[in-house]
Design brief:
The protein is mostly beta strands. It has one helix at 6-22; strands at residues 46-49, 58-61, 64-68, 76-82, 92-96, 103-107, 111-115, 124-127, 140-145. The protein has one helix and nine strands.
Length: 152
């Protein structure tokens, strides 16, 4: 056997090794890599009405009902009411995207205005404080847009 005949075998082994290493990302879950969290299951706890209401999903994040407003941009508003045969959730939060609008305003038993960061990366969850809405609250209006000018 000549010295030349060993080189093609070494090259072939290197190619097979490179292909096997490159394909590792396509294999099923490796035990030492963390698994991605499964997406939250959509639910229908509240009736949402208003422009684009069908794009704002609902899901549970532990014991908090999360209304996903991450697709909201500019200005807009929605109205929330408990679905037929249900009550308000004990805890309620809104997922927003920093920079999409300046302020989120909620009107129910109380009025609360939450400023949103002008820049940022991932969406953030804003939880309503207790007392903003009560079991007797008929509906809740959620509006977003530019920050109001300060009063003179």
């Amino acid at each position: 056997m000549s010295a030349r005949s060993g080189k093609p075998a070494a090259r072939a082994a290197a190619v097979v090794l490179a292909l096997a290493a490159g394909g590792c990302g396509h294999l099923p879950h490796w035990p030492w890599h963390p698994r991605a969290a499964p997406p939250a299951a959509p639910v229908h706890e509240l009736d949402i009405s208003g422009a684009g209401a069908e794009t704002y999903g609902q899901s549970w994040k532990r014991n908090t009902l999360l209304i996903d407003l991450s697709a909201a941009r500019g200005t807009g508003s929605i109205t929330l009411k408990p679905a037929a045969g249900s009550d308000w959730p004990v805890r309620l939060a809104f997922r927003v995207t920093p920079g999409a609008f300046a302020v989120l305003e909620v009107r129910a038993a109380q009025r609360v205005s939450m400023p949103i960061a002008a820049a940022g990366g991932a969406a953030v969850d804003l939880e309503l404080a207790p007392g903003v809405y009560t079991p007797a609250t008929a509906q809740m209006t959620v509006a977003w847009g530019a920050a109001a000018a300060p009063a003179p």
